[in-house]
Amino acid sequence: MRSIPEIIGLDEKGVVVNAGRNRTISGRVWFGTLIFLGVLSLALIITVIVQARNRAKYDNTNKNKNENDVCLTQGCISAATHQLRSIDSAVSSNLCKDFYTYACGGWQKTHPIQSFDVERTILGDIINRRDTEIERLLDSPIIRSDQRSWEYKVKTYYTECRDDYIRVNTSATYLIAIIQDPSTINGWFMFDNSAENVSQEALLKNQTLYQQMSHIHGDFGALAVFGIRTRFDEDDPTIKRLELYPAGLSMEVSDYEEDDPISTSRRAAFQIYIIEIMKLLAKDAGITDINVEDRAFTVANDVFTIEKFLADSLRRNPTSSVPRTTNLQEISTQFSFEFDQIMRHELDDPDAISILTPIYLTNNMYFTDAFELVTDLENPLFARMVHNYLRWRLVATYINDLPYNYVHKHREYLSAYYGYTLHSTNEDYCTREVIRRFPFAIQRLYTMNSAIYSNATTTVETVSNELIKSFKTYLDKNAKWMVDEQTKNMAKEKLNALTTAIGYASIASDDASLDDYYDKFFVANDAHLQNSYSYHLFHRSVLSNALKNPNLLDHWDFFETRPSRLFEYIAIFNRLFVVASGMHEPLVNAEWPWAMNFGSLGVLLAQKLFASIDGSDGRTHLPNGTRNDWWQPPTKIGYNNSRNCITDYYVNELKTLRYEVNDVLVEIQLTGEPFSPTTLRHIGALRIAYGALMKNNDVKSLKMPGTNLTSEQTFFLAYAQTQCYQRQPISQLLRTQLGLYDERTALNAALIHMPEFAKAFECEARKNQCFD
């Protein structure tokens, strides 16, 4: 069984990648909610101050202590207020065994998950608030109204994306005209074979594979059979290579083959979806012959047959992270296809690469299988299948840019595919698309309108620098699992060379530079589908520029392919990225005491830093970014001993997790794998951040107001409250079966293996800590 995605949306292929938010709640409800939250926050602040002063008075009377035992700075009061909102003090007697429920019980009661959502998390809420704020900024008036300005282009693109009237009247007509243009795609079996007494089996018009791919794949950007992107050189991160990779599927690979009820229903939903879209296109194209439904069925069957073949190849030949180095001339000969010629359609500047320039080919066996199939156009049946598949991929690429009867059918398909009704609005889709397609413009728009950004940047820089220092100390004095000096020295060398990128790319700080960057993107104020096509033409120039000027964007272009990430370590650059939109409460506040900042954002960043030495990429990349497995055998043995210890805890102590699904209690036996390395990383990150706090503790012996917690206790509570979540039971059940344990399980497992936590809360320490 496969996991339900965390959040749902679409990428440029029309494939589900992410979860949509529903902001269709009425203004009155929002206004009432804001008033309620404002009153609640005020009450909490008053409670914090009163409790703090009462405790201080009590201490003066009974314990001979003065009021300074409680921190009453604005930052401490703000931090304590934040923590009080989420804790459940009713379960404090059990916090040694279940710290998560103590830390997040209040949050779970006040942050319900919507019936149409899969989950709700702290980081997810941050991203949703960011997207809401970006939507508001995109709706604001255009200040720099010159049509060459990045602001005019991005806001106009967004406005036209949301323009219902223009979409309904022109989008489908424009796409049908593209398909029927004799100079490019030159028709479709669905349209061409509508005349009376015409064959319903064979193509009336046919093109070579190159003719079809050059226009559908190259000119219009549909991902069919393969995709094209840039990738940094494996041995020299100052060079970017063109990479060809498998692409062009509409479902998960296993959905094409498995006989389980989920896969079977998904296959049926997919083919019904294609048929419905074909009927809509035929109607809008004026095709009304008696065979139109039969041809729609044929198209659906052809598309599924081709995709099933490609999926089967991927199933037999899983894609490796290590590509094959080749060149366009070599693969043109190998696969009997004009890869050397198609670059004139894929790149804005074909001279950015020659036929002998080294490129990367990901999954050579897949390409062998795929091009044996799609080049066999002498067979009329295969010719029709390839013809229909390629044109369907074009429609799927632009499906969300078409009129709403098409979008509605697409959403019905997604609901059937995932087994529950999805709620998404046009505003959601357009906001996501703008964020994904124009990340540097969005960075500029967001940061130039953020009043607290500069203070937060300084705080995050301090946190990251102190974490790196603490990490080095950890390697010197702890890290007993890292047995040999050679591995330990390389780990420290990586930390010495590690760089941080905090906030945004430098290009996003200057309007003139952004104007130049988006110079080749043209936008119209009355045609969204054309604008979407125009974006693809602009993207071709981005690919060309990436090959010619690989360091133009300070590597932020690589990080920005992860739109749902607020921070990330990328091994090939040995760099930690922290995006500006993640530098807000509840992760960081410049006024908060260090116990809060190190406990919240600090631990999350420490997890990424720890991945620089123990992650699958971190342990196989040297400080300069070249690929090399630098762990020596003694360290591998030491790490695996710790891993086995954590696995033993899950298997023999925790044993099972239970979920109530449709009023039925389901018990899942735990295996500990592949989750145990995640637990080790959490322990290591907590230890690094805790060490940084101990050297930068600005409140020291003072306690937090309201909670009466020490700085050490506040630190652990701060981290725990970044892990609060709500998730549909069926979703978490599936995740657990795949070895992805929930946040409560992960947090409690990490903390009970930490003597620092046991000391802070006076809990009984475990004898076997597993990970030093």
Automatic annotation (TrEMBL):
The keyword Protease applies. Its cofactor is Zn(2+). Residues 96-504 form the Peptidase M13 N-terminal domain. Residues 574-765 form the Peptidase M13 C-terminal domain. GO terms for cellular component: plasma membrane. PROSITE patterns: NEPRILYSIN. CDD domains: M13. Gene3D superfamilies: Collagenase (Catalytic Domain), Neutral endopeptidase , domain2. This is Endothelin-converting enzyme 1. The lineage of its organism: Eukaryota, Metazoa, Spiralia, Gnathifera, Rotifera.
